[in-house]
Amino acid sequence: MNKQEKSHEIEALSTVFQGTQHAFLVGFQGLTVQVDTSLRAEMRKAGITYKVVKNTLAKRAAKGTALEVVSDQFVGATAVAINPEDPIAVAKLLMKFSKENQKFVFKGGVLEGKAIGAKDLEALATMPSREELMSKLMYVINSGAQRLATVTSAVARNLAIVTAQVRDQKEQAG
After folding, report:
1. Are both 106 and 137 inside the same structural domain?
2. Sheet holding 105-111: strands in order across?
3. Around Cβ 125, how many Cβ atoms within 10 Å?
4. Do 136 and 103 share a domain, yes or no?
5. Where in the sequence is the domain holding 92, given as residue range(s)?
6. Distances in whole angstroms, Cα of residue 10 to Cα of each of 3, 83, 86, 113
7. Considering only CA atoms, which of 107, 122, 94, 138 is closest in space to residue 25?
8. What is the pTM of this model?
9. Tens digits of per-residue pLDDT, 7-62?
10. Per-residue pLDDT tens digits for 76-93
């Protein structure tokens, strides 16, 4: 790679790194081509940017970005997984893949601009996804409205029952 190609690569990586507060560094040394291809396909399907990087270029590109705090992790065969909108989805996929492939290891990462380790990734991977959280939130909001409707209709129903009972008592007395 000549100087011009290196400078273009640094600029491209820097642009990717500038645009995110969440990124995960993984080691993939020893993975077969077939396993790596399936990982890349899963990443693409999930909307995750997965890029194998040259360490020296990545260290330079990380300067002044959120990834600067983990630039010391750019050692050995390194790839970066990024999804700026849903870091939980990335964490879940990385954990699933690392459990299936022992040679695939989590090196470090950045979440909201702060460095995280393997334990943090595990905790993040066990959190509900954005879709699950939205579903739960909608259930909570909807259940409150349903309870209000039930209570409101109960008042009207109870009033109708009491009115009917009073009318029946007056008819029996009269």
Report:
1. no
2. 49-53, 78-82, 23-27, 105-111, 114-116
3. 19
4. no
5. 3-127
6. 10, 20, 25, 20
7. 107
8. 0.71
9. 889 898 888 888 888 899 999 888 888 998 999 999 999 889 999 999 999 999 99
10. 999 999 988 888 888 989
